[in-house]
Amino acid sequence: MAAMAPQHKIFAILIALAFTFNAGAQHSFKVNASQCRAATPEELKWLPAEWTPFRIFTRACPVLGPGRRTDLLLISPSAEKFYKSQPGTQANAVKLPAARLYLPGGRFCGTLPYAFPDDPPVEMSVRFSEWRGGSVPTKIDLEISDPTASGNRRTAMVWDPVTRMYQEKNK
Amino acid sequence: MTPTMAPEATTTATAALKKACDEAYLKGTGSCSNAVWEVIKSMSNAQEPYRVANVLMDHMSANWKTVELEEGYNLANQGIVVVGGTKVEQGNGHVIVIYPGAKKLNGGYMYFYKKGNKDLMLNGTKLYPLCLSTSMGKWPGANSNGDKTVWDPWGSDKGFEGVKFFTPKA
Fold first, then answer.
1. Residue A91 and residue B91: Cβ atoms within 8 Å?
2. Which label site among A60, A66, A171, B143 has the fewest CB atoms less than 10 Å from its CB?
3. CB-CB under 8 Å, B117 with A89
4. What is the number of domains present in chain A?
5. Best residue in B32, B139, B143, B151 to probe A by mutation, most A CBs within 10 Å?
6. Which of A150, A153, A155 is the best substitution to test chain B (most B C-beta atoms within 10 A)?
7. How distant, in Å, are the alpha carbons of A162, A166, B4, B25, B57 from that of B141?
8. DSSP per-residue string spanning B73-131
């Protein structure tokens, strides 16, 4: 096979980089609660003390990046599992801990406004996007369905590269 | 500063505010802004034009006096109209009137959680002033003729954080 001229090599690398960046820019991942699993003992250790009553109902949802690898973990108590575990047809509404985001190594990087996928009476859908060639998505779109006077709404969180945390947009 | 009234005038004004709230609730339009409009026309300005909740919130922010909840509670118990609410961008806001009377515990009603197939009881956490609130939605806390509190239409501390209260300028 003929050797590639240096300028052609550089051009090929730039094309590959642009392709990767573009793939990251276009990729988005909507978290599907059916793809979440029980949190591992290691993952449970990352959580604050107030999660203790909800440990056995805690789910970890992998957030897959453009390379199909787990770039983030969304960890949340499952309201459905918690309330189904309560006896009878009635239960007291409890304040569930809000879902938290972690890098795969266990570094905490943000809190969503509610438990995922629901925090009765609120339901929340979560979509990650705009990887921009990095290892984490830089935008989170939240669609909140809320029967109270607060109403249905959409909001977003963005990655702050300085603090390496997700912050509510416009805050 | 909260204006002061003679006790007998307060009693009459409070009864009038209660009556205006009751009548607005009984009209049963289900529209929060219509119910609030009825009370404003009865108690403050008969010529008040109708405004939907988001527009009313903007109007009150610009033209009415902002009051803290405690001051609003005291004013309502002197028969003075105090309107609270939230504006929802790209959505429908919600407005209520502080209903005269003693504070009560928030919550105390159930809502159905379909996925868990359970009725969930929202237990009270704190005393709040009562409210007149009507709504076309299904949230039980959003319909109140003085039987629920100003917190209940929003149903959570997080939701109630954004509620602002106003009274017409004297």
1. no
2. A171
3. yes
4. 1
5. B139
6. A150
7. 42, 32, 32, 14, 20
8. HHHHTTT---EEEE--TTS--EEEEEEEEEEEES--EEEEETTTTEEEEE---SEEEEE
**Residue A72 domain-assigned?**
yes
Per-residue model confidence (pLDDT) at position A29:
97
Interface touch A90/B139, C-beta < 8 Å: no
Confidence band for B123, pLDDT divided at 50, 70 and 90: very high
This prediction's pTM: 0.86
Q: DSSP readout, A97-142?
A: PPPEEE-TTS-EEEE-SS-SSEETTEEEEEEEE--TTSSS-SEEEE
Domain spans, chain B: 7-167
In A, minimum Cα distance to B140 occurs at A148
Tell me how far apart the alpha carbons of residues B39 and B25 are, in angstroms, rounded to a whole number. Answer: 10
Contact across the interface for B118 and A86, Cβ inside 8 Å: yes
Which residue range is the domain that position A104 belongs to? 27-86+93-168
Does the residue A11 lie in any domain? no
User: Is B139 in contact with A148 (Cβ distance < 8 A)?
Assistant: yes
The domain B7-167: what is its CATH number? 3.90.1720.10
Give the ipTM of the model, two decimals please: 0.90
pLDDT for B6 equals 63
Please give the mean pLDDT across all residues of chain A: 89
Sheet with B65-67, side-by-side order of all strands: B65-67, B164-167, B83-86, B94-105, B127-133, B144-149
Q: Which residues of chain A are within 8 Å of residue B113 when distances are taken between CB atoms?
A: 79, 83, 120-121
A156 is a domain residue? yes
Grade residue A17 by pLDDT with cuts at 50, 70 and 90. very low
A154 in contact with B at a CB cutoff of 8 Å? yes
